Amino acid sequence: MQRNRLEVSGYLTTKPSLRSLPSGTPIANVRLGESYRYQDGDGKSQQHVNWHNLSFYGDLSRVAMTFEKGDNIFVEGTIEQRPFTPKGDGVQRVVHEVVVRNCHLIAPPRRTGAKGANPPSAREESSIPDLQKGPINHDAWPVG
Fold it and tell me: What are the boundaries of each domain within the chain?
């Protein structure tokens, strides 16, 4: 039996960027950092950070664009690897990324300003797709 499933939570390093594939499928990309602490052999506290490249396809790209730098999110997805040749040096590399299948914000974003700030406008709320109306069409995704 083989299974490719990943669950990870952490903090976004930037606001996601949006682009489209040649097929027209929207894709949002962002990096997520998750860390943990441990004690080394000498009893000293250490911290390690893992960095994950996240890719949100289709309807999930619109959800990803509502996230901001520093948001604490939870994602479920699969690990994919693909060849990549940057324009600069032309040397082919292998990129590992998490193709997100499901995600949500863990905690509300920290907003600066006065208490009781205005709630989001109807326009802002309408930009977030209502995933309760039905499942996302995964057939349009370019990956398995």
Answer: 6-108+117-140
Look up residue 140 and give its two tokens. 């349009």
**Overall fold of domain 6-108+117-140:** OB fold (Dihydrolipoamide Acetyltransferase, E2P) (2.40.50)
pLDDT tens digits in sequence order for the chain, 144 residues long: 889 999 999 999 999 999 999 999 999 999 999 999 999 999 999 999 999 999 999 999 999 999 999 999 999 999 999 998 888 888 999 999 999 999 999 976 566 555 544 555 444 444 455 555 555 555 555 554
Alpha-carbon torsion (121, 126, 132, 135), positive or negative: negative
Q: Judging by beta carbons within 10 Å of its beta carbon (0-12, 13-18, 19+), is residue 63 exposed, middle or buried?
A: buried
Query: How far does CA 54 lie from the centroid of its chain?
Result: 4
The token duo for 15 is 């606001």
